Amino acid sequence: MKREQNLTIVGSQSIKDRVTLFIGAMFRARWFTGLCCLSFLSVGILMNAPLEAWDNQAQSLNELLTRYDTSRCKECHEEIYAQWEESHHGRSIMDIFMAGYLKEGVLSVKSPNEATRKNFPCFKCHFPQIEHASDQVASEIAAVILNNDQSTMKKLNINCLVCHRDMGIVHGFPKADALYGNTDVEDHPDDGFKKVHKSPVMKQSAMCGQCHGLGPVFDFEYPVQCATLYGSYLHAYIPAGGSRTCQECHMEKADHTCPPNFKDREDVSKRLAEALPMDVEAMFYRPQITPGKLVPTVIVETKITSRAGHRIPDG
Amino acid sequence: MVLDVTITDDTNRTLYAKSKVYMPQSTDSLGNAMVYGPTHKLGIVRDTSIQPFAPKTETFEASMPEGIGKVRVNVDLSYQPRPGDVYPIHHKTVELDLGKEG
Question: Residues B3-26: pLDDT tens digits?
Fold first, then answer.
């Protein structure tokens, strides 16, 4: 009935009006709107998709670890590699009590075979390589963790390829044969990654902010909240006039140990003392708040100032 | 982050002790109980942590018993991510003579 009415109206319109009405009618037809959306989506995906097959899902943990093996990096970058090995990035799942989460609570499993990628929301930051792995790999990782296989756990880390490839560029996707750093290297002597592209974001706090937390992470069936440092940096430090980047304090002279290293307790204490100077004043007197009643009183005044670029403590 | 203030006399008897805890505090956003752990926390509801460029000042008023002579004021700041896991940061001591007039 509606279509007949439209046709009747069309009969009395100009060609321009007829075209307009025709297009309107096409969009009112659900199949046509769906087709348009699908077309736009396909073009969008093709334009933005990573180019490489390198990122196909690994079907085994061994395949994933081989893909992300960075042991050859130390042949040329020995000092930086040694620094990284000492860092928290170098043992990013070792200290997060993942076994406890797999044994009890919303992420728990009765056996490793039950585990899927959904059981590892922490890995969004602690082992982001999981994005390129199948649920079978997640199951293998669960077995590694529940069996406390320390040598394999040590291999599940934030390594060179995570920061200098996967996360090294944020405007677009990384290229298949390239790494990202602070300078261009035309002939990077590596069989797989033949070029290094200068990526300005690597010197920016946003680089670190990809993992070091804005606040709650709602991406998962059960949300998690871990680090909120980047949120604090953005919403407390910057508004208060702060101008330093994360790297200026935590990667001074390109130090890939990225302190603080909480295993080096003495150094953590020293860094915290530098970041949080404390003044203390104390006095004794006898106030007489109630007339005729003197009360011996000690007054202690403390003042803690923060030189850090974020709240302390975090978490 | 924990600030401990204690006052002891010359026999090491504690005359005053008070602590302040500085930390972001979260619930699970299902109720009003504070929770720990990344799989439980969802939203900071109170934040007493030490903020950039925002000095944290405290005043402790400690009434002392009569007849006390010298006292030692100890102020300790430490990072305590978990109970019993203490990273000392500052330890400051001030000695006062309560018996001294004027």
Answer: 999 999 999 999 999 999 999 999
pTM: 0.83
* Pairing between β-strand B14-21 and β-strand B24-27 as defined by DSSP bridges: unpaired
Domain extents in chain B? 2-21+51-97
Dist. CA A53–CA A30, nearest whole Å: 35
Same domain, A213 and A100: no
| Best of B14, B25, B57, B87 to mutate (most A CBs within 10 Å, chain A) | B87
**Structural domain ending residue among the three candidates A169, A203, A237:** A203
Last residue of a domain, one of A137, A171, A203: A203
Residues A42 and A79 in one domain: no
B22 neighbourhood in chain A, CB within 8 Å = 312-313
ipTM: 0.96
Question: A50 versus A138: which is more confidently predicted?
Answer: A138
Question: Are A199 and A208 a contacting pair, CB within 8 Å?
Answer: no
B71 and B15 in contact (C-beta within 8 Å)?
yes
A-interface mutation test, from B53, B58, B76, most A Cβ less than 10 A away: B53
Token couple for B54: 């925002």
Whether A196 and A239 share a structural domain: no
A26-35, A304-313, B20-29, B46-55: the lowest-pLDDT one = A26-35
**Rounded to 5 degrees, what angle do the CA atoms A98, A99, A105 make?**
85
Q: Domain count of chain A?
A: 3
Q: Does B39 touch chain A (CB under 8 A)?
A: yes
pLDDT over threshold 90, residue A45: no
Q: Tell me if residue A12 falls in helix, strand or coil.
A: coil
Q: Is A193 found in the same domain as A148?
A: yes
pLDDT single digits (tens) A114-145? 999 999 999 999 999 999 999 999 999 999 99
**In chain B, residues 67-96 whose CB comes closer than 8 Å to chain A:** 68, 71, 73, 75, 77, 79, 81, 87-90, 92, 94, 96
Distance, CA of A174 to CA of B4 (rounded, Å): 50
Domain housing A214 = 208-315
